[in-house]
Amino acid sequence: ECEFCNRDGTGDECHQQVGDTPKPSIYSKEVNEKWSALLLEISKANDEYKECPSSNCSCHFSVIQRDMSNFKNGITHQMIKAAQTRGTKYQIINHRLYRAKACMFPARCAGVEHFLSKIKSKIPDIEFILNTRDWPQVSKYHNQLQPVLSFSKTSDYYDILYPAWSFWEGGPAIKLYPQGLGRWDRHRESLKRASEGWSWDRKISLGFFRGSRTTEERDPLVLLSREEPDLVDAKYTKNQAWKSNEDTLDAPPAEEVSLADHCRYKYLFNFRGVAASFRLKHLFLCKSLVFHVGDEWIEFFYPAMKPWVHYVPVRSGATKEDIKKLLNFVKENDDVAKRIADQGFEFIWNNLKMKDVTCYWRRLLKQYSKNLKYKPSLDESLIEIKYSS
Ligand code: UDP
């Protein structure tokens, strides 16, 4: 017999028959205690967070400072020569843009040149090596210090981060985006519109992911989805390397889902791919809650975004149980979840405009030019890039 019951079986703590599992209300003491450590962490993260002015890409300055601090003793001509095999050589001389004739990925070079052409009139004479591969180049453990610009890296690399080509063009080509993912300006608008059609209360309360198996780190979520389809809808799609169902974790590949259709779902997952995934920035614009797995692989705008302020951090190597716990937490704390989703949207909307990307490029190359120890002269083997967009 329940010791808290009144004789007639009523009483606050006595709703259940003996043998029933108690189902606490989300406001009950039990739930608050269950989640108190997480709630405290969230409130601390939000208290400590300071918004940055959204006018001049200043949110991202510390990344430039950190990357360039490795080169405080200057960038010499020898260093550039040594780095030359790691990427494509560019020069800006007399405010004209030049590039080595061959570019490993022409669409990626074009995506970068869109921005370089916009800023060349403000940049003093410089030269730099730009890596268009997915992978960073200059490991702190295996290489001498070399100045190479890359779009993504971990803290194990000296590479200098630049904004990815895919803000304009040259992103992965999938069936839905056969020209390659790009045109961030258009995605910003179309995803914002999609988010308006799928307001928070209308969204389907499921964790969601569509993408290829570029890393096995995505497996636990896909497996959880197979076990608990009422909690998660996560499936593998084909990519160009797909050969058999083994590449989609022993299931037929799923149809691709457009980024706008991601907005139907309340909880959107991001994982690293080969390097950072271009997916991340898009997810925020749905005003859904972003679950960001792992914190090692970054693009230039990642460090300004904070766990529990803009997204739910999920540890790299998270198990099905870890993910399930976090999903249960956000489901039981819907107001907290919505607040983080809104803050994530606001950050990207205000601080990752096309103007901010151009601004970052300008600031980066101005800082780079200050570290360059010599005045480069035109390399006659380069071709002039006259970009028209
Ligand atoms: N993508 C998409 N819908 C899908 C599958 C992929 O919009 O159904 C996008 C995704 O957002 C990402 C790109 O296509 O930006 C490549 O995704 P994939 O998972 O293949 O690679 P990764 O995330 O490792 O770059």
Structural overview:
By secondary structure, the chain is of the alpha/beta class. It is built from 11 helices and 11 strands. The protein has helices spanning 29-48, 61-69, 77-83, 106-119, 184-197, 219-227, 259-262, 279-284, 320-332, 334-351, 354-371; strands at residues 88-93, 96-100, 126-130, 148-150, 160-161, 204-211, 232-236, 265-270, 289-293, 312-314, 382-384. The strands form 2 sheets. The protein has a 6-stranded mixed sheet. Mean pLDDT is 92; it is low at 1-20 and 23-27. The chain binds uridine-5'-diphosphate. The site of uridine-5'-diphosphate has 16 residues, from strand 6.
Compile the SSE list and pairings:
Layout: H1 29-48, H2 61-69, H3 77-83, E1 88-93, E2 96-100, H4 106-119, E3 126-130, E4 148-150, E5 160-161, H5 184-197, E6 204-211, H6 219-227, E7 232-236, H7 259-262, E8 265-270, H8 279-284, E9 289-293, E10 312-314, H9 320-332, H10 334-351, H11 354-371, E11 382-384
Parallel strand pairs: 3-4, 4-5, 6-7, 6-8, 8-9, 9-10
Antiparallel strand pairs: 1-2, 1-3, 2-11
Bound molecules: uridine-5'-diphosphate (UDP).
